[in-house]
Amino acid sequence: MEEEVLDQLCDFLSSGHSYIPPKNTDLTGQTIIVTGAASGIGRVSAIEFAKLGAKVIVGIRGQSRAEKIAQLLEYEAHIIGTGRIIGYDLDLSKLSIVKKFADKILEHEQHVNILLNNAGTVQLVHSVTFDELETQFGINHIGHFYLTKLLLPLLIQSKARIVNVSSLGHCFVDDHINYEFPSSSYNVQIAYGQSKLAQIWHAYELQQRYGQQGINAYSLHPGMIFTGITRRAPKLFDFVYQLVLVIVGKSLSEGAQTSLYCSLSNQAKPGKFHGNCKEAKTSPLAYNKKLAEECWEFSERIVNEKTKHF
């Protein structure tokens, strides 16, 4: 597994690409949702979409905070034209809040052209969400799975793109998949990797199930960047991570390139995993149809169980 990660990391480091939308790109009239846009590549992506004329809805924890950040993003974007940024409360660790967010979208929007499932977390100790799901799997995958499920009729109607920001960390997972994440044998690296592998499977299965109805789904690795994702980690871990970034890291703008590529480029490949603005190598598990289907079915069961009283 370590050799696999090293091989893919070398590929990412040696083949950097950037994506520049064609000069005539105009997103006027399009509606785009970005989760986790308070900072990092989600913030950069939201600004770039608005610059191109889109109405961008950013999902950020806390309604007041979401509105304030949306205003800041509009200011940073120096928007000329139709672009605008709107902030709605979205907490992926609480499925009831995810439903309220989706209900607001379904009530007010006639179409959604791009859903960028960008938000993510890293936890260094075992913890659970409000819905008693392992935190990394709950936020990185289940929250986005449920949001996508709720919006799916509108996404199909809009022939939308769905983009999941995954990670090279999916290679940390071997073929012993365990969705229980017991605290007694908890491995943060494997739990994180499994949440990111689930995001790849999610995009793959969306394409298999709904591609013929006009949906195009993608997953990606943004590169090693400082997004604030380690801000709650122990100081030593955070220091080492920052040191590695100095050597091989990308800027936030560079890190957002593959998100923009998968969201906008006709060269991006539906159902596939991307990095450096091209299709990228993956773990052998990433396109395992049986495991992808099992993850989908497990996610459906969890979501149905946790939301049956909503």
Can you characterise this structure?
There is one protein chain. By secondary structure, the protein is an alpha/beta fold. The protein has a single domain, classed as Rossmann fold, CATH 3.40.50.720. The chain has 10 helices and 8 strands. Strands 3-2-1-4-5-6-7-8 form an 8-stranded mixed sheet, with helices on both faces. α2 packs across α3, α4 (about 95-110) runs parallel beside α5 and α5 packs parallel to α6 (about 190-210). The model has no long low-confidence stretch (mean pLDDT about 90).
Largest sheet: 8 strands, mixed
Low-confidence stretches: none
Tell me, rounded to a whole number, the average pLDDT.
Answer: 90
Supply Rg: 18 Å
Number of strands: 8
Predict the CATH topology. Answer: Rossmann fold
Helical percent range? 40-55%
Question: Which overall shape is indicated by the principal axes computed on the Cα atoms?
Answer: globular
Q: Biggest sheet: strands side by side, in what order?
A: 3-2-1-4-5-6-7-8
Regarding CATH, which class? Alpha Beta
Number of domains: 1
- As a percent range, the share of strand residues is 5-15%
Q: Secondary-structure element order, as H and E?
A: HEHEHEHEHEHEHHHEEH
Per CATH, the architecture is 3-Layer(aba) Sandwich
The total count of helices amounts to 10
CATH superfamily: NAD(P)-binding Rossmann-like Domain
Distance separating the two termini: 41 Å
Structural class based on helices, strands and sheet pairing: alpha/beta
